[in-house]
Design goal:
This protein is α/β, with parallel strands linked by helices and about 375 residues long. It has 13 helices and twelve strands. The strands form two sheets. A seven-stranded parallel sheet has the order 3-2-1-4-5-6-7, with helices on both faces.
Length: about 375
């Protein structure tokens, strides 16, 4: 490729970036119809980016993925999809492929593709799941990372202290179908845990310690379609949440938006939204049963503190779908401008009369290899 061809290619890339004529591919696992909050967030990114005029796609490994229609609905299942297996992934220098933190093996598979590689990190505890010892994301030519909170951002910057990797945040939004029930609350306790043993231990210990409250129902909402999950969440009187993995945690915010207080163990990485007043928090999971017993007694006597509900409402008001869309729009607009500046710098260098053409071509090839 001679100098004029390179100039023409870069100018074409700049036009594509200006016109949003490039692909943004979010890789996701096929959950075989099982609901997952992290997958829902990826689909929300794809939907909002398409609404904003970008060409965003859900990327699967296999061609026979099941998708999300049974739990997110057709609005999301009908989003553009491509699969690696069917060779539908055709990328160039302006395209972006975004891989969840757990799939370092996929980063290895796409390392040689001539596109920009990114990571979306929603659950910091999964980072090393498939990452080879001694490796970091920069080794797979990753240059940008999206995460969901300031705490995770600082953790990632400290963990991967590599100048080549920039970490940004896109906000989470709680859908509007999470809303307060017009019916009186029922004596139902929602339990959302990562480990089924925690769920079993809590309700069995509760019935032992509080036999006079055996009529209280415990309900695990795992596996429900999102809107049904929201409806049943809103019917209950309290939600128990134990999750040390996610680093963000949407269930408590969903519960707060439904007007349902949360009893929870403070995660190892404390989410930015947790305050002393917006839930009944403990650092010891063994305290949860007694906190629940005291809460149920207060609920029965209508003695719940009004400031708890006020603080819940204040907390969740920040996490709207509109704010998430604005956050995504801002992030990808800034990313696009950054990529344009990189191409413009290369173009300026190329047009400099005394610039060594052979050196430039070598540098451009290195940039291409680095994504």
């Amino acid at each position: 490729m001679d100098k004029e061809e390179i100039i023409k290619q870069i100018e074409g890339n700049l036009v594509k970036l200006s016109e949003k004529d490039f692909g943004i591919y979010f890789f996701t696992a096929d959950t075989k119809g099982a609901p997952a909050g992290s997958i829902a967030n990826i689909y929300e990114h794809v939907k909002m980016l398409n609404d904003l005029g970008y060409k965003a796609y859900v990327l699967h490994e296999k061609n026979d993925y099941q998708g999300v229609e049974t739990w997110l609905g057709s609005e999301y299942s009908n989003l553009p999809h491509v699969s690696i297996e069917s060779n539908e992934l055709k990328v160039g220098g302006t395209d972006i492929v975004i891989i969840p933190e757990i799939f370092a093996n996929v980063l290895e598979q796409i390392k040689s593709l001539p596109c920009r590689k990114m990571v979306i990190s929603q659950a910091y505890d999964y980072i090393f799941e498939m990452l080879e010892p001694g490796k970091n994301w920069a080794d797979y030519k990753v240059r940008d990372v999206i995460t969901t909170s300031e705490n995770q951002k600082e953790y990632l910057k400290t963990l991967f202290n590599v100048p080549a990797i920039e970490v940004g945040i896109t906000s989470i939004g709680i859908p509007d179908y999470f809303t307060k029930s017009e019916e009186p609350k029922k004596p139902i306790v929602n339990i959302c845990t990562r480990d089924t043993r925690d769920t079993v231990k809590i309700f069995k210990a509760f019935y032992v310690k509080y036999p006079h409250l055996k009529w209280v129902t415990f309900r695990d909402l795992k596996g429900l379609p999102r809107e049904k999950f929201a409806k049943e969440l809103a019917e209950s009187c309290v939600t128990i949440w134990i999750d040390d993995i996610s680093g963000f945690g949407t269930v408590p915010l969903e519960s707060m938006k439904c007007g349902v207080p949360v009893i929870g163990k403070v995660p190892n990485m404390v989410p930015n939204w947790i305050t002393d007043k917006n839930g009944l928090w403990t650092n010891n999971v063994n305290n949860i049963v007694d906190i629940l017993g005291n809460y149920m007694q207060a609920w029965l006597e209508d003695l719940e503190p009004s400031e708890l509900y006020e603080e819940m409402s204040n907390t969740v008001s920040e996490y709207t779908m509109d704010n998430q869309k604005k956050s995504i729009e801002s992030y990808f607009e800034n990313l696009t401008n950054k990529i344009k500046e990189e191409f413009e710098t290369s173009l300026k260098d190329l047009k400099t009369k005394d610039f060594n053409e052979e050196t430039l071509i070598t540098n451009l090839q290195k940039e291409k290899n680095n994504g």
